[in-house]
Structure formats: C-alpha cells, structure tokens
Amino acid sequence: MLSNQHIEIIKSTIPLLESAGPALTQHFYQRMFAHNPELKDIFNMTHQKSGRQSVALFEAVAAYAKNIENLAALSAAVERIAHKHTSFHIKADHYQIVGHHLIETLRELAPEAFTPAVEEAWTEAYLFLAQIFIDREEELYQLREKALGGWRGTRRFVVVEKTSESKLVTSFVLEPEDGGKVLDFQPGQYLGIQVSPTGSDNVEIRQYSLSQAPTGTSYRISVKKEQSSEHADGLVSNYLHRELNVGSTLDVMPPAGDFFYQPSDAPVVLISAGVGCTPMQAMLQQIGKQDSSQQVTYLHACENELQHSFVDETATILAANGWQQHTWYREPQDKHEATNCHNGMMDLSAIKDSLPVHFGEFYLCGPVGFMQAVVAQLEAMDVERSRIHYEVFGPHANL
C-alpha cells in the first residue's frame, strides 16, 4: 500500500499535471516509441497520430492522481482497461517499459519540481497501480486459457464467410485453423485481431464487436469501412474489406470486454447508431434463444437506408419474438410512412410512453456524440445512470 506521505505528494503534483495537459503524454509516447519501437506493433498508431490516445492516457493519469485516496472509484475503469489490454496481449514486462518512460517524462518536463521525493512517490504509485492491472489481467488470461475452447495470446483463424451487410459494413465469419472449439463469450464483447496490412510498417491490432451470439465453433465480426483519410483512419478496416477474403487467415485474441448483456427480468432497450448495431445483434440473438418472454425494444439510427446493416436479420429476430423496433434515418433516401421509422436524429420524446423508463435496462453503442445525446434524453426521463450501460469505440470517453 502507498504511504500517507506518498499520497500527499501525489496530490500535490495534480496542479503540475493539469498545467502540462496532454502534452505530457504526447512527450511520453514519443519518448517510448523512440526507445522501444517494437511497441508500435501493439499500440494503435492511428490513435497516436490523431492525438486521441495521448488525451485518453492523460485523463487516466490525472484521474489516478485525483483518486489516489479512493481507488475504488476507479474500479470500473480498471476493469475496462484490463479487458482492453488482454485484447492486445499486454504482458507484465510491458508495464516496466511504460513505467520507466513515464518517470523519465516527468523528470524531463518538470526537472525542478521532480524532486527525489516526488520521483519516489510516483514510482511507488505507478508500481502499485501496475500490479493491480497485472494481477487482474493474469486472472483474465488464465480464465480464458483454461475454459473450453480457450487459449492465451493469438490463435490462427480462417475466414469462412464474407457477407456485405450494408453499403459500408461487411461481416466476416471466422473459424480456428486448428479445427477446435472456440471460447464462449458474453454478447456485447469484442474480438482482438492482429494483421499486417498492406502499406503499414507495423503489425496492427484492432478490436471489433462480436455480432453473433456464441456458437462454440466460430465468431462473426462486422466491420465498417472507414472512409476518412485523416490520420490514416481506416487503415485496417479498408484492408479487411479489400484484401481479406474466404480462405484468408488472421491472428485472433480471445474475446474480451466489460460491456455485455446482463440477464434480468426487467425489460431491455437496445440503442445503437451506425456500426454500433454490431454488439446489439449478438444480444438480440442471445436473448431470443434464452428467454422468449423477455420484453425487448430495439432503437437504431443511421445515415440512410443504404447504411442500415442487418435489416433482414434483425426483422426476423424481432418478428419471431414479438419485439418492437424504431429506426431513425438522418438523411433518408425515400419517404417513410411507417410509425416505427423516423427521419432526422434520434428523438426519444415521440416514443417515451412506450419505453420502460422507470424499470428497464438500457444498452447503448455508437459514436460518443450520439450516446451523449441519448443519455441526456434518458436522464431527462428519470432513467438512473445505473440502468444505462454503454460501449465506446476507440479510446474511452465518459458520458
């Protein structure tokens, strides 16, 4: 445990961290990649170029310092990050490298303030937190390795199906090359994949939501083809769409993620936008198989009909279970008269009376801006935060 003296010193450095801002973590990453370029095969270099990862790391470091006396407040963040780390196959040795460059960054950016006492306090604080992650991640690694169909690290999979779901989204069904079983997962979790795209100097690791309920023999991921060229966004998604075909192979990490459907007697509302529909497909399938009496409402928003993925698949599941659906097209191609199809941005006020706002469980997945707007609407309807569960693409953001 950290001593009271260490805690007080960490707290005293908060103003210094806040004045440095994300520039601190930008310097850290530049330093680390210069000295340990092999880590470029683990970290998402697109997020490095855009600055999103630097901001996310700075916010995590600042949150740790501010909650140094109440680490329980960070338990949800620790669980989320630990799951993400296992999808990159982060090892204990990596924490030593990161810790070294973090301490050296503080020394280089604040040489006068970084006294021996401050160095000792931050070193102890980092080692304490790192051990929490190392222990939790090892637990996750062992659980998955020992379970039926489980493994540790990467496992080679083969693409056995490739299906276009909409204008921008394509599904890939993956089976293990060794012909064995695959680990079950919680609907809502994701799969880490490792590829070497054409035009990239590094191995690239990405996470994609599993878009099908567990089968025991295969996984399905559904990938949106990113069209932006800024910061090389879409490097991996375009490679998958363009070059990954039936018979292609890729390395896969076991399923991970702390966002998943939690069985309950309460009504369920699934809310997604764009490719955020992928984990919802797994949830819809799983709920339908387990409990046909469950009350489910599915709300989805996307640009237009051409970008609406899983239309027929979703309609079949909903009809078989008597569930309700509402869809919003921001810029529809055609005029829609159906009462469950709306134009513009998602507006829950029109269907408020049909939503279980007082006792339902709400699951959200989509762009941050979309989810922030939906959460604000739900809270205005007196839905407690404890009943709102969400997943964020990319570096995590709080809603």
Model description:
The chain has 399 residues and is an alpha/beta fold. Helices cover 40% and strands 18% of the residues. The chain contains twelve helices and twelve strands. The strands form two sheets. It has a six-stranded antiparallel sheet with strand order 4-3-6-1-2-5, with helices on one face. It has a six-stranded parallel sheet with strand order 10-9-8-7-11-12, with helices on both faces. Strand 3 and strand 4 (204-209) form a beta hairpin. The longest helix is centred in the first third of the chain and has 31 residues, at 116-146. The protein is globular, with a radius of gyration of 22 Å. 33% of the residues are buried. Its cofactor is heme b; FAD. The record marks 84, 391 as: Influences the redox potential of the prosthetic heme and FAD groups. Residues 1-138 form the Globin domain.
Please describe the structure with a list of short key phrases separated by commas or semicolons.
single chain, 399 residues, alpha/beta, six-stranded antiparallel β-sheet, six-stranded parallel β-sheet, 12 helices, 12 strands, EC 1.14.12.17, heme, metal-binding, oxygen transport
